[in-house]
Amino acid sequence: MISRRNFIAAASLAVGTSLVPTAISRASDQTGSLLLTSYINGQRIDRTAVLEWEARRLKVAAARLDQYLPAALTAELGALLDGSAPSVETVARDREALADVKLQLGHDAIRDHFAADLAISGPMSVLAAATNQWSASTIQLTSTRGSAQGFMDWFNTRINHNDQRAMLLANPDHYLITSPRSGAQEVIEVTGGAMLASQFFIDYTDNTGVPTPRDPLYPVQTTGWARTSDGTKIGAVRHQLRDNAKGGFTAQLAVSFPAALPSWMFTEHQWHLACEFSNWVTAYIAATQP
Asked: Which residues pair with 251 in a beta bridge?
Protein backbone atom coordinates (compact mmCIF):
# COMPACT_ATOMS: atom_id res chain seq x y z
CA MET A 1 0.00 0.00 0.00
CA ILE A 2 1.27 3.49 -0.83
CA SER A 3 1.92 5.49 2.32
CA ARG A 4 1.21 9.20 2.52
CA ARG A 5 4.97 9.88 2.71
CA ASN A 6 5.55 7.91 -0.50
CA PHE A 7 2.70 9.73 -2.21
CA ILE A 8 4.13 13.15 -1.29
CA ALA A 9 7.60 12.09 -2.39
CA ALA A 10 6.29 10.79 -5.71
CA ALA A 11 4.27 13.94 -6.29
CA SER A 12 7.23 16.16 -5.57
CA LEU A 13 9.46 14.16 -7.90
CA ALA A 14 6.91 14.56 -10.65
CA VAL A 15 7.10 18.34 -10.40
CA GLY A 16 10.79 18.52 -11.26
CA THR A 17 13.81 21.18 -9.99
CA SER A 18 17.20 22.79 -10.30
CA LEU A 19 17.43 26.18 -8.15
CA VAL A 20 20.97 29.41 -7.44
CA PRO A 21 22.89 30.90 -4.80
CA THR A 22 23.48 33.54 2.14
CA ALA A 23 24.28 32.27 5.34
CA ILE A 24 22.89 28.76 5.27
CA SER A 25 24.14 27.72 1.82
CA ARG A 26 27.62 29.09 2.41
CA ALA A 27 27.60 27.49 5.84
CA SER A 28 28.04 24.04 4.35
CA ASP A 29 31.47 25.13 3.14
CA GLN A 30 32.52 26.63 6.46
CA THR A 31 31.48 24.14 9.14
CA GLY A 32 34.12 21.49 8.52
CA SER A 33 33.86 18.89 11.26
CA LEU A 34 30.26 19.69 12.19
CA LEU A 35 28.15 16.55 12.54
CA LEU A 36 24.40 16.89 12.94
CA THR A 37 22.22 13.94 13.87
CA SER A 38 18.45 13.90 14.28
CA TYR A 39 16.53 11.33 16.30
CA ILE A 40 12.92 10.70 15.36
CA ASN A 41 11.03 8.34 17.65
CA GLY A 42 14.41 7.13 18.87
CA GLN A 43 15.65 6.31 15.36
CA ARG A 44 18.93 7.89 14.29
CA ILE A 45 18.54 10.00 11.14
CA ASP A 46 21.69 11.24 9.45
CA ARG A 47 22.06 14.60 7.74
CA THR A 48 21.80 13.14 4.25
CA ALA A 49 18.31 11.76 4.90
CA VAL A 50 17.18 15.18 6.14
CA LEU A 51 18.66 16.86 3.06
CA GLU A 52 16.81 14.37 0.83
CA TRP A 53 13.57 15.37 2.56
CA GLU A 54 14.46 19.03 2.00
CA ALA A 55 15.20 18.40 -1.67
CA ARG A 56 11.71 16.95 -2.18
CA ARG A 57 10.07 19.82 -0.33
CA LEU A 58 12.00 22.37 -2.40
CA LYS A 59 10.26 21.01 -5.48
CA VAL A 60 6.86 21.12 -3.80
CA ALA A 61 7.37 24.67 -2.53
CA ALA A 62 8.59 25.90 -5.91
CA ALA A 63 5.53 24.38 -7.58
CA ARG A 64 3.21 26.05 -5.08
CA LEU A 65 4.65 29.46 -5.95
CA ASP A 66 4.70 28.89 -9.72
CA GLN A 67 1.39 30.64 -10.41
CA TYR A 68 0.26 34.23 -11.01
CA LEU A 69 3.75 35.66 -10.61
CA PRO A 70 5.50 38.55 -12.39
CA ALA A 71 7.46 37.41 -15.42
CA ALA A 72 10.89 37.92 -13.81
CA LEU A 73 10.04 35.66 -10.90
CA THR A 74 8.32 33.11 -13.11
CA ALA A 75 11.56 32.74 -15.06
CA GLU A 76 13.50 32.14 -11.87
CA LEU A 77 11.03 29.54 -10.66
CA GLY A 78 11.23 27.91 -14.06
CA ALA A 79 14.86 27.15 -13.35
CA LEU A 80 13.86 25.59 -10.04
CA LEU A 81 11.32 23.34 -11.69
CA ASP A 82 13.37 22.38 -14.74
CA GLY A 83 15.20 19.28 -13.61
CA SER A 84 14.95 15.62 -12.74
CA ALA A 85 14.97 13.83 -9.41
CA PRO A 86 15.93 15.85 -6.32
CA SER A 87 19.66 15.90 -5.65
CA VAL A 88 21.26 16.59 -2.31
CA GLU A 89 24.17 18.13 -4.18
CA THR A 90 22.03 21.07 -5.32
CA VAL A 91 20.09 21.68 -2.10
CA ALA A 92 22.30 24.55 -0.92
CA ARG A 93 21.87 26.62 -4.08
CA ASP A 94 18.26 25.52 -4.50
CA ARG A 95 17.22 26.80 -1.08
CA GLU A 96 18.89 30.13 -1.91
CA ALA A 97 16.94 30.57 -5.13
CA LEU A 98 13.62 29.74 -3.50
CA ALA A 99 14.30 32.20 -0.67
CA ASP A 100 15.14 34.85 -3.30
CA VAL A 101 11.72 34.40 -4.91
CA LYS A 102 9.88 34.62 -1.59
CA LEU A 103 11.73 37.79 -0.59
CA GLN A 104 11.20 39.40 -3.98
CA LEU A 105 7.50 38.66 -3.82
CA GLY A 106 7.19 40.45 -0.49
CA HIS A 107 4.77 40.08 2.39
CA ASP A 108 1.58 41.27 0.73
CA ALA A 109 2.02 39.07 -2.34
CA ILE A 110 2.74 36.01 -0.19
CA ARG A 111 -0.35 36.67 1.92
CA ASP A 112 -2.44 37.13 -1.21
CA HIS A 113 -0.98 34.03 -2.84
CA PHE A 114 -2.02 31.86 0.10
CA ALA A 115 -5.28 33.67 0.90
CA ALA A 116 -7.44 30.71 -0.13
CA ASP A 117 -5.34 28.34 2.00
CA LEU A 118 -5.56 30.64 5.02
CA ALA A 119 -9.31 31.08 4.63
CA ILE A 120 -9.67 27.32 5.18
CA SER A 121 -6.78 26.49 7.50
CA GLY A 122 -7.53 29.33 9.94
CA PRO A 123 -11.05 28.22 10.95
CA MET A 124 -9.97 24.57 10.87
CA SER A 125 -7.14 25.31 13.32
CA VAL A 126 -9.50 27.13 15.67
CA LEU A 127 -11.99 24.26 15.52
CA ALA A 128 -9.29 21.65 16.18
CA ALA A 129 -7.97 23.64 19.15
CA ALA A 130 -11.39 24.19 20.72
CA THR A 131 -11.00 21.29 23.20
CA ASN A 132 -7.72 22.76 24.52
CA GLN A 133 -6.14 19.31 24.26
CA TRP A 134 -2.63 19.13 22.82
CA SER A 135 -0.16 16.60 21.48
CA ALA A 136 3.44 17.28 20.57
CA SER A 137 5.60 16.56 17.55
CA THR A 138 9.06 16.04 19.02
CA ILE A 139 12.58 15.22 17.90
CA GLN A 140 16.09 15.34 19.31
CA LEU A 141 18.97 16.98 17.46
CA THR A 142 22.64 16.72 18.38
CA SER A 143 25.47 18.94 17.17
CA THR A 144 29.14 18.15 17.65
CA ARG A 145 30.01 21.86 17.69
CA GLY A 146 28.72 25.01 19.37
CA SER A 147 26.88 25.41 22.65
CA ALA A 148 23.28 25.45 23.81
CA GLN A 149 23.37 29.08 24.92
CA GLY A 150 25.42 30.11 21.91
CA PHE A 151 22.84 28.72 19.51
CA MET A 152 19.92 30.23 21.43
CA ASP A 153 21.62 33.65 21.47
CA TRP A 154 22.19 33.42 17.71
CA PHE A 155 18.60 32.31 17.08
CA ASN A 156 17.07 35.05 19.23
CA THR A 157 19.27 37.64 17.54
CA ARG A 158 18.04 36.53 14.11
CA ILE A 159 14.44 36.99 15.32
CA ASN A 160 15.06 40.33 17.02
CA HIS A 161 16.92 41.67 13.97
CA ASN A 162 14.07 40.46 11.74
CA ASP A 163 16.45 38.35 9.66
CA GLN A 164 13.80 37.06 7.31
CA ARG A 165 16.30 35.41 5.00
CA ALA A 166 17.69 33.19 7.77
CA MET A 167 14.15 32.17 8.67
CA LEU A 168 13.16 31.36 5.09
CA LEU A 169 16.35 29.47 4.24
CA ALA A 170 15.81 27.00 7.07
CA ASN A 171 12.89 25.18 5.45
CA PRO A 172 11.23 25.22 1.99
CA ASP A 173 7.82 25.22 3.69
CA HIS A 174 8.51 28.62 5.30
CA TYR A 175 6.85 31.23 3.08
CA LEU A 176 6.78 34.29 5.34
CA ILE A 177 8.46 34.75 8.72
CA THR A 178 8.78 38.31 9.91
CA SER A 179 9.22 39.91 13.33
CA PRO A 180 6.78 42.78 13.96
CA ARG A 181 8.58 43.35 17.27
CA SER A 182 11.34 41.83 19.37
CA GLY A 183 10.60 38.23 20.41
CA ALA A 184 7.55 37.82 18.18
CA GLN A 185 6.94 36.47 14.68
CA GLU A 186 4.26 36.29 12.03
CA VAL A 187 4.54 32.98 10.22
CA ILE A 188 2.99 31.58 7.06
CA GLU A 189 4.14 28.02 6.50
CA VAL A 190 3.01 24.56 5.59
CA THR A 191 3.40 22.56 8.77
CA GLY A 192 4.56 18.99 8.35
CA GLY A 193 1.88 16.83 6.75
CA ALA A 194 -0.50 19.69 6.04
CA MET A 195 -1.89 20.23 2.55
CA LEU A 196 -2.63 23.93 3.16
CA ALA A 197 -0.53 26.81 4.38
CA SER A 198 -1.41 28.27 7.76
CA GLN A 199 -0.76 31.61 9.41
CA PHE A 200 0.01 32.13 13.07
CA PHE A 201 1.62 34.65 15.38
CA ILE A 202 4.10 33.40 17.96
CA ASP A 203 5.23 35.39 20.98
CA TYR A 204 8.21 33.95 22.83
CA THR A 205 7.24 35.84 25.98
CA ASP A 206 3.76 34.28 25.96
CA ASN A 207 4.65 30.98 27.63
CA THR A 208 2.29 30.39 30.56
CA GLY A 209 0.81 26.90 30.38
CA VAL A 210 2.75 25.72 27.32
CA PRO A 211 1.77 22.02 27.12
CA THR A 212 5.23 20.43 26.82
CA PRO A 213 6.75 20.24 30.33
CA ARG A 214 10.11 21.78 31.12
CA ASP A 215 12.97 19.29 31.49
CA PRO A 216 15.40 20.38 34.23
CA LEU A 217 18.24 18.61 32.42
CA TYR A 218 17.89 21.13 29.57
CA PRO A 219 18.55 24.58 31.07
CA VAL A 220 18.38 26.62 27.84
CA GLN A 221 14.99 27.00 26.23
CA THR A 222 12.63 29.05 24.14
CA THR A 223 8.86 28.75 24.49
CA GLY A 224 5.75 30.46 23.24
CA TRP A 225 2.15 30.09 22.15
CA ALA A 226 1.11 30.28 18.51
CA ARG A 227 -2.12 32.19 18.05
CA THR A 228 -4.41 33.31 15.25
CA SER A 229 -4.71 37.00 14.43
CA ASP A 230 -7.61 37.27 16.88
CA GLY A 231 -5.57 35.71 19.71
CA THR A 232 -6.89 32.14 19.70
CA LYS A 233 -4.30 29.58 20.78
CA ILE A 234 -3.67 26.99 18.06
CA GLY A 235 -0.29 25.59 19.08
CA ALA A 236 2.88 26.09 21.08
CA VAL A 237 6.61 25.47 21.07
CA ARG A 238 9.06 24.46 23.73
CA HIS A 239 12.58 23.93 22.46
CA GLN A 240 15.08 22.91 25.16
CA LEU A 241 18.86 22.60 24.89
CA ARG A 242 21.85 21.45 26.92
CA ASP A 243 25.58 21.22 26.40
CA ASN A 244 27.18 17.81 25.87
CA ALA A 245 30.04 16.64 28.07
CA LYS A 246 32.26 15.92 25.06
CA GLY A 247 31.42 19.14 23.24
CA GLY A 248 28.55 20.39 21.18
CA PHE A 249 24.97 20.38 22.37
CA THR A 250 21.66 18.53 22.24
CA ALA A 251 18.26 20.04 21.51
CA GLN A 252 14.90 18.59 22.46
CA LEU A 253 12.49 20.20 20.02
CA ALA A 254 8.73 20.11 20.54
CA VAL A 255 5.79 21.71 18.75
CA SER A 256 2.34 21.20 20.27
CA PHE A 257 -0.64 20.91 17.94
CA PRO A 258 -4.31 20.32 18.71
CA ALA A 259 -4.66 16.66 19.71
CA ALA A 260 -7.61 16.32 17.33
CA LEU A 261 -5.32 16.48 14.28
CA PRO A 262 -4.53 13.20 12.48
CA SER A 263 -1.46 11.35 13.75
CA TRP A 264 0.44 11.55 10.47
CA MET A 265 0.66 15.33 10.79
CA PHE A 266 2.72 14.92 13.97
CA THR A 267 4.98 12.41 12.21
CA GLU A 268 5.53 14.60 9.16
CA HIS A 269 6.28 17.64 11.28
CA GLN A 270 9.18 15.78 12.87
CA TRP A 271 10.94 16.00 9.49
CA HIS A 272 10.03 19.68 9.24
CA LEU A 273 11.73 20.25 12.61
CA ALA A 274 14.80 18.22 11.63
CA CYS A 275 15.19 20.27 8.46
CA GLU A 276 14.80 23.75 9.88
CA PHE A 277 16.90 23.26 13.00
CA SER A 278 19.67 21.43 11.15
CA ASN A 279 19.91 24.39 8.81
CA TRP A 280 19.77 26.94 11.63
CA VAL A 281 22.48 25.13 13.59
CA THR A 282 24.64 24.96 10.46
CA ALA A 283 24.22 28.71 9.91
CA TYR A 284 24.98 29.40 13.60
CA ILE A 285 28.20 27.39 13.49
CA ALA A 286 29.32 29.09 10.27
CA ALA A 287 28.65 32.54 11.71
CA THR A 288 30.22 32.06 15.14
CA GLN A 289 32.79 29.25 15.17
CA PRO A 290 36.37 29.64 13.89
From this structure: 141, 241
Residue 138: left if φ>0, alpha if ψ -120 to 50, beta else—which one? beta
Lowest mean pLDDT among 57-66, 169-178, 224-233: 57-66
In terms of DSSP bridges, do strands 174-178 and 134-143 run parallel, antiparallel, or are they unpaired?
Answer: unpaired
Query: How far, in Å, CA of 156 to CA of 65, rounded?
Result: 29
Nearest to 93 by CA among 173, 174, 22: 22
Q: Where are the alpha helices (DSSP H) in the chain?
A: 4-15, 23-27, 47-65, 71-81, 91-113, 115-128, 148-160, 164-169, 263-288
Helices 47-65 + 71-81 axis angle, to 10: 140
Residue pair 203/183 in contact by the 8 Å Cβ criterion: yes
Q: In this structure, what are the phi and psi dihedrals at residue 260, rounded to the nearest 5 degrees?
A: -70, -15
Mapping DSSP to helix (H, G, I), strand (E, B) and coil, where does residue 99 land? helix
Say how many domains are in the chain. Answer: 1
SS3 of 213, please?
coil
* CATH of residue 99: 3.30.530.20
Whole-number CA gyration radius for the chain = 18
- Per-residue model confidence as pLDDT tens digits over 52-106: 999 988 988 888 887 665 544 554 455 455 554 567 888 999 999 999 999 999 9
d(CA 143, CA 140): 10
**Residue 75 sits in which domain range?**
4-288
Order of all β-strands in the sheet with 174-178: 43-46, 36-40, 134-143, 249-258, 233-243, 220-227, 198-203, 184-189, 174-178
How many other C-beta atoms can be found within 10 angstroms of the C-beta atom of residue 85?
11
